[in-house]
Amino acid sequence: MAISGCEWVIEALGCEAELLKDPVALRGLFADLIAGLSLHPVAETQWHQFPGPGGITGLCLLAESHLACHTFPEFGSLCLNVFCCKPRPDWDFVSYLKKTFFAREVRVRQLERPYGS
Asked: Among all residues, which ones are annotated catalytic?
């Protein structure tokens, strides 16, 4: 029996710069992803906010693997990575990021991560 994980690599471009520096907005993104994909954090999410015009990096260790983001307010971009050890239903990253962060464009790549040959 072959099994594989699922990884999403997402770039949201043209986002509202102030939201990309807002820890509350990013915590909301993680909370919505965790609930929407039925994920299970095993520790508190770690956040690092860069000084000045810099963005935020977040990492959540999951029982299923990890959830990470990096924001670049100076470029209006949010980079997101979600890796789950078992396939999950699709999540509407495009609509969510356009609505919540006012992204002009969202690119989503979904990768199958096989565990055996």
From this structure: 65, 70, 85
pLDDT in tens, 74-115: 999 999 999 998 878 889 999 999 999 999 999 999 987 767
Domains in the chain, please, with CATH?
A: 17-72+83-108 (3.60.90.10)
Rounded Cα distance between 19 and 60, Å, is 19
Task: List beta partners, residue 49.
Answer: 56
31-40 residue pLDDT tens: 999 999 999 9
Question: E strands along 1-117, which residues?
Answer: 4-13, 46-49, 56-61, 65-72, 77-84, 105-114
CA nearest neighbour of 26 among 37, 12, 6, 43: 12
CA separation for the pair 95, 102 (Å, rounded): 10
